[in-house]
Design goal:
Layout lengths: L2 H32 L4 E3 L4 E3 L7 H28 L3 H20 L6 H8 L6 H21 L3 H25 L5
Antiparallel strand pairs: 1-2
């Protein structure tokens, strides 16, 4: 991979991280708004402006919306990659995997989307996070193997996505940039 290709991959990683995170949070925001709640959205969170959900299923629907749209994104990109191998497109599959992996790990400290839903369904905190992450891992592995992406590209992709995801999360925590 040339230096120019490497820089392009890094730039596309920033786009993929930002797009995936905003789409994920927008799904939470849109679901809550559709259910009639005043919602707010930042770079890495979406939730009620104040108050509580009127029904348990509302809370679960809002929590489920982000991971569901992230899985939908990954599924669509996986299908596209079957027809057209593309390193740029692959980033839009890899980011959902890493995002949900990170969210699953965070369940140890603070329940995240799949952890909340899994616990509410009586499946334990880690069942749904593990299933979602494993599903995404299988898609990433198959797409990567089919396209023949080299180890250097995989390493650079992982590093770039982790750096941009960390920057996005830190920016959200430090600056609390309200998007909606």
């Amino acid at each position: 991979m040339s230096a120019k290709q490497g820089l392009a991959t890094v730039a596309w990683a920033a786009v993929a991280v930002t797009f995936t995170w905003l789409l994920h949070e927008f799904a939470h925001w849109a679901t809550g708004t559709f259910l009639g709640y005043p919602m707010q959205m930042t770079l890495n969170t979406a939730g009620l402006v104040d108050g509580e959900y009127r029904a348990t299923w509302h809370r679960l629907a809002v929590s489920s919306a982000g991971p569901l749209i992230t899985l939908l994104q990954a599924g669509l990109v996986f299908a596209l990659l079957r027809k057209t191998p593309s390193k740029v497109l692959y980033l839009f599959l890899f980011v959902p995997f890493l995002m949900r992996l990170m969210a699953g790990v965070i369940n140890v400290i603070n329940l995240n989307d799949e952890g909340r839903v899994s616990q509410a369904l009586g499946l334990g905190v880690y069942t749904l996070p593990a299933l979602v992450t494993f599903t995404l891992l299988v898609m990433v592995a198959r797409a990567s193997r089919r396209a023949g992406f080299e180890a250097r590209f995989q390493a650079m992709t992982t590093l770039a996505v982790m750096v941009f995801a960390t920057l996005l999360i830190m920016a959200d925590q430090l600056l609390t940039i309200r998007v909606l």
